[in-house]
Every structure is written in structure tokens, then in C-alpha cells.
Write a structure and sequence with these properties.
357 residues; Beta-Lactamase; Heat Shock Protein 90; six-stranded antiparallel sheet; five-stranded mixed sheet; elongated
Length: 357
């Protein structure tokens, strides 16, 4: 019976997926399983009796500091959960989750059994989650600040300039000599141009149509302004049912279209752009297509702001959507965005850290 139990335990030791490290009372390694060999790169014959626990451990990771040997888990009888940096044969220190317990023996404490699990993938996912959370907060803060500045320009400076215009018209009705009237006309023209620039800037920052009328109206209006500004023939097409979407969806798709069309005007050397908005039963699609010089998508930077595509991808990812790019040198560029929606027009697969409010 004891032999059968021993054989079972040996089989278990060799076949569990978690790495197991056994050290004696002096801290020397006296046992490792195949999972430990795979995790660390060290073979059993390279560590048994040749390395100590401290040779393989680069300290416990804590919330306060990256690595610390203070209150080492090996000094305790049992520690159900901790994290250490394991020094691998390749020279890399990897974060692993662990638990440990002392094996009792007659006359005192015996060997320490340490069970380790590779934690690097979980940490990578946590870093990505944290990065997306920061991105989401930045996007929300930007939109709120855009909205505030847009409102201040329209209600503050815009109204003040309009009042000046009215005052100038009143003065213009007075009996003025030729020089004064000419100077007044110049001031009126300058004030009118400034008022138009303030209005344009206010709309660019946060178009009221996006909040009041929805995505379709905002994109249609933007297409007209874009054509006037850049002199590029711009066609706006809309398909499917016209409806309002969640505010986060409308804002993200508007900004993506705005960024993509601005990029096309700057870099594509195109004379025409087509912007399409299509409502689907289970989502919404936006497509921006130009007929310019195109580019090789393989040469885009994965990180950074390469042509603004990184920011566009982040916005789409936060909504659980997809962004695809079809482009080739000399054949133009097509950016296609799809966001799955629920029955209320909100993102169906919204990223858990995204704020839909």
C-alpha cells in the first residue's frame, strides 16, 4: 500500500502542470519536477545540490516595491499566496505566483515545498488593462474638455463678437466721413472673419449636431465643411435605419472619421473621399475610402501615433469593435470600422473598463 502511494505521489509530482521546487532546511534545492525545468530552463542535474533557493529567487514582489527579500516566504511555516521573481537559466527574471509549506518531520521542520505558476501572461494582461483604462480616461477627459471649450467659445467669445458686430452696424448708421467709414468697414470685416473662425473652431472641437441630432447629421455636416476646407470632393453615403446610438459610440465613430479624413487630406494626395455610415441590425459600420497614393500597411508602427491609426484602434477596441485597413501603394486607402451593438444602440461587447455613461 505504501509503495502504491509512493508511486502515485511520484507520478503526480512529475505530471502536474505547476512547477514544484523542494529545498532542505539549509535552503539548498533537493527536488524539482519537469514543470519547473520547463519554466526555468534549469535541468534537475544543474540545480540539485548545486543551487540554493536564493540563487533562483530574485525576491518577493510587493505592492510597495518591485523586489524585496524582507519577510521571505521561506521563513514561514506556510504561505498560501505570494509572488516572486524567478531567475531563469536564460538570465531573465520572470514573475511567478507561488505558495509554500513546510513538510514536518520528526524532531523539527523538514523540507520546504514551493509550488510556482507562471504569472507573466496575467501581468501582461493586467498592464494592457491598465493602459486601456488610462486611454479611456484620457479620451473621456479630452471630450469633456473639448465640449467645455466649445461651449465657452460659442457662448462667451462668440456672443461677445456678435455684440460687437451689432454695435459696429449701429455706428455705421451715423454720419461719418469717408476715412472713418472706411476704417469702420475694415473693423467690421475683421470682426466678422474672427466670428466665423471662432464658430468653426467651436464646431471642430465639439459639433453641437453630434449631441443634438446624432452621428449621421454630424458626419453629413462635417463632410460639407471638410470639402470646403480642403477642396476635396467628399461624398457622404448613409444606409440602413437612421437612429441614435450610445454617446460613446457616436463620439468614437465621429472622431475616427474625422481623423481618417484629415489623414487622407494630409497624406493621400487624393481628389475625392467617400464616407459611408451604415446601420445594421446588430451593429454600425463606418467606412472612409480615398483614391490617393495609398501605403503599405505592413510599414505602420505598431505603437505610437502612426498616421493616427493607433488612436483610432484604441477607440474601437474600447467599444469591442474592429478596425481593418485595406491599402496598397498607388491604390488608395479604405478604413472600415464595425461596432457590434445591443438593441439600445450601445456597444454589445464594450471593454470592461470603458465608461458608457
Amino acid at each position: 500500500m505504501l509503495n502504491e502511494t509512493a508511486r502515485f505521489m511520484e507520478t503526480l509530482f512529475k505530471n502536474v502542470t505547476d512547477a514544484i521546487l523542494v529545498v532542505d532546511g539549509k535552503g539548498d534545492v533537493i527536488g524539482v519536477n519537469p514543470a519547473f525545468e520547463r519554466m526555468s530552463g534549469w535541468m534537475a542535474e544543474e540545480v540539485l545540490g548545486k543551487k540554493s533557493l536564493c540563487d533562483l529567487c530574485r525576491g518577493m514582489a510587493t505592492c510597495q516595491e518591485e523586489s524585496s527579500c524582507i519577510d521571505c516566504f521561506a521563513s514561514r511555516l506556510r504561505m498560501p499566496s505570494f509572488q516572486i521573481h524567478l531567475h531563469t537559466k536564460s538570465g531573465e527574471d520572470i514573475a511567478v505566483a507561488g505558495s509554500s509549506t513546510r513538510l514536518p518531520e520528526d524532531g523539527g521542520l523538514g523540507a520546504l515545498a514551493v509550488i510556482l505558476r507562471d504569472n507573466s501572461e496575467m501581468q501582461r494582461a493586467e498592464r494592457e488593462r491598465h493602459q486601456r483604462q488610462l486611454t479611456n480616461y484620457v479620451i473621456q477627459a479630452q471630450e469633456e474638455e473639448r465640449k467645455r471649450i466649445s461651449r465657452d467659445l460659442h457662448d462667451g467669445i462668440g456672443q461677445a463678437l456678435y455684440s460687437i458686430m451689432v454695435g459696429l452696424r449701429v455706428i455705421n448708421q451715423l454720419d461719418l466721413n469717408h476715412d472713418m467709414r472706411q476704417h469702420l468697414d475694415e473693423v467690421q470685416q475683421l470682426t466678422a472673419r474672427t466670428l466665423e473662425e471662432v464658430k468653426s473652431l467651436s464646431v471642430e472641437l465639439r459639433p453641437s449636431a453630434l449631441d443634438d441630432l446624432g452621428l449621421a447629421a454630424a458626419l453629413r455636416s462635417y463632410s460639407k465643411r471638410f470639402e470646403q476646407t480642403f477642396g476635396i470632393l467628399t461624398t457622404f453615403e448613409i444606409g440602413g435605419q437612421r437612429r441614435r446610438y450610445d454617446s460613446a459610440v457616436e463620439t468614437a465613430l465621429y472622431r475616427i472619421a474625422q481623423e481618417a479624413m484629415t489623414n487622407a487630406a494630409k497624406y493621400a494626395d487624393t481628389d475625392s473621399i467617400t464616407l459611408r455610415l451604415a446601420d445594421q441590425p446588430d451593429g454600425v459600420e463606418v467606412c472612409i475610402e480615398d483614391h490617393g497614393v495609398g501605403f503599405d500597411p505592413q510599414h505602420l508602427k505598431v505603437q505610437g501615433t502612426g498616421l493616427g491609426l493607433y488612436g483610432m484602434r484604441e477607440r474601437v477596441t474600447l467599444l469591442g469593435g474592429t478596425l481593418t485597413i485595406e491599402a496598397a501603394p498607388g491604390q488608395g486607402t479604405k478604413i472600415h470600422v464595425v461596432v457590434p451593438l445591443d438593441e439600445k444602440g450601445g456597444p454589445r461587447y464594450v471593454h470592461p473598463i470603458a465608461d458608457r455613461g
